[in-house]
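Re: your question from the hallway

Yes, I did run it. Sequences:
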Amino acid sequence: MMDGNLHDDPLLVGEGALGQMMPMYLRVSPSGHIRSVGPTLAKLCRGNDLRGARLLEVFELRKPHPVQTMEAFGKLAGQRLHLALRDGSKTALRGMALRLPEGQGYVINLSFGIAAAEAVREHNLTNADFAPTDLTVELLYLTEVKAAVMEELAALNLRLQCAQRAAEEQALTDALTGLANRRALDQTLDRTVEAIRRGGRAFTFMHIDLDFFKAVNDTLGHAAGDLVLTHVSKVLREAARKGDTVSRVGGDEFAMILPGMVDEADILRMARRIITELEMPIEFEGQPCHISASVGATISRIYETPDPDRILSDADTALYASKRAGRGRCTVYQPGMTLPDVEDEARSTRRT
Amino acid sequence: MHGLVNRSLQCFLRDTYGSDLWCRIAEEAGIDSVGFEALLMYDDAITDHLIDASIKWLGKPRDALLEDLGIYLARLEAPRRLLRFGGVDFVDFLQSLDELPERVHLAVPDLEIPELRLSSIGGGRFTLECKGRMPGFGSVFAGVLRAMADDYGALALIDLAQTASASELIQIELLEMEFASGRHFELALPERGA
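Structure:
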């Protein structure tokens, strides 16, 4: 008999059951007085019994638009509502009001908006505070797992970046001495020359070639040779000023870029100091190692348009002049300085 | 295999047995002892080599090793929390396991884990079927279930059944739901710096 009369069969649901289905429901009288409250919503109000309070005094309706009267509120039945508790927490909620038949007032179902995690934290809610159909807990799960994955990704990026930086550094560093290598020198020289074209500081390029290094290597072995090279790098580093580049460009060849040092007397003084320091004997297993160095330098100011290849080659010419003049000295390149005809032959023997 | 799996193995071995043994196992398996990145993919064979090397150095059967891995993982705070989202009590948690692969995909879309199907056979007894491409996950899940029973404070017998089929079967017998008080779980983490 009931089956045949579905349309007129009123749905009777007790407050307890309603609270189970919709733990954040409100039942409100036509006058706007709250008559019953779902258990989770009650928890949000921290023990304040909402029953008997006026809906619009407890909640602030934000969207679709604020209302002052229950008459205005009634017109929003069936729409999506954005509300907030007027208490200190200002917890944002969304919901929908259903107008009950025969002037029984309203049932309003609420849920948390996108800021669910904050509300759950603030009100110490548990899994049991949510209806089984509610996906808020899944939202919290996703928030947490996303944070973990993002953190891992950020750490991975950092590790990759560090690895890349280390690889780049390795590619530009001489393994034995830790000085810049040939590649790094070329890059710095290019940059410095480029900077001059844009009005940057003039500089001196210094080519330093060790004398008698082969003898050390041949008589005392490679370990002694390595010790000497490490010592040379230390001497050059100490001689360098801030902003200078010191590099090892070959077996026993070094080079320096000295921005701002353009006075010939200064250059010769610095080279002299380096050579004197290098001529001090270095002790290897109780044996003294003796070396010296020949230096060739060129000043960027003598060129109308400085060119890295030209600078390298002119410093080389000056270095060769030092070698020919008896080693252990420095020559600053002068325009017109050339190598004698024996150059090629001499060069091939010089570095042995 | 997903880096998370390899990384889990690495952390489990290193944290449980120390760095020296981890390095030795890594060497045996032909892996750099720096190990794995959790979010990169690796060849499946690497995981096999790693497991084989662990079995050799630890003198443990494969099933026991993988079960220990499962226990280790479920006791780490971050995975433990994510697992606890599954249910309010141990039975609720068991019932949520069918959804676990979906949950895992929400988190890490390319992490492949086996299909899970829980069946209730009455009297507090359940079976969990793991059907996947890589055998061994069954043992890991057996360990995870053991750790989670403890976490919820439930007393349960958990065993990996021997099956002839491709899928692995875990038998669960729940003896007591509230055997111990279990560990605390709050849905939302405290705010950073709070």
